[in-house]
Amino acid sequence: MGDLSSILSLGFDESRELICDATTVHNDQKLQGFFSNVGMASGDYLNFQIPQNLVVVGDIHGDIVSLEKILNRFDWESFLESEENLLIFLGDYVDRGQYSLEVILCLCKLKCLFPKNVFLLRGNHEAFHYFPFSSFNLPTELRSKYGNKGNDLYFENIIPLFDSLYGFCEIESFALLLHGGLPAIDNYNFFDNYRFHLSNLSTRKDLLEEILWNDPRELAENNWEYSNRGVGKYFGMNITNLWLEQTHCKNVIRGHEPCKGYKTNHEGKITTIFSSKQPYPKFDSAYLKISRDEMLRESEKIIKLDNFIEII
Ligand SMILES: [Mn+2]
Fold first, then answer.
1. What CATH class does 2-311 carry?
2. What is the mean pLDDT of the chain?
3. How close is the Cα of 124 to the center of ligand 1, in Å?
4. Cα of 181 to ligand 1 centre, how many Å?
């Protein structure tokens, strides 16, 4: 894993320093508002023009082995040398798997090495203090590794890192990227100013809950239904069509649901990518890689993204 394997031998203080450094990079980017020639950040919202190449990685859930395989498969070091290439992670880095801290450190290292082309979105597992649920095991992992210091690391350093993650990404005229799903908007006025709303997710708990927790479903009648998860909603194709029409995008790319590497919903407009294997032996780990030419193909309104998924 080149430089990245060094994170496996980091001591407590060095680990904390790396997490703080990545948090600072995020917060500086959000404050400055603009950061590269292919895109910009405004608070929690990222906006890009179509990059030269795009790689998207779904839920990792503490599976450092799958993460390493994926990074090696697309040769991360040469890929990230060009600032025209983007690497976007869809959230849910921690819990369930055994190596949550190592995954966090690896992603922090990537962000610090390549701040302009590595972007980390927030998953529901990175928002525990907003939406608590019972299967959360990262604090336990940290306590068993470092005792009380592990607790401090979680509350003093990891929670601020999670709060610094981006919430929503738009690649103009191509795709909307987010962890869970599209909020079930019923007021069209929302779209007059949707970028502003999405840039302030930390003060819009209603939107944040849906973005982190929603799932697409093939609903026959309703626009949306309550989710069995107890948080968030199931959203139907009407919601997907509304968002895509209003934003002039063709695809939605999200994670959040375990699957055999990927699945599609809503006539192929939504692609789910899942990149964790160790905690989910029945499922597969995959990532998406697509080039600028492929993203630009105008002839088809919906680009079938399953052609660009690699299962590892
Ligand atoms: Mn999730």
1. alpha beta
2. 93
3. 5
4. 10
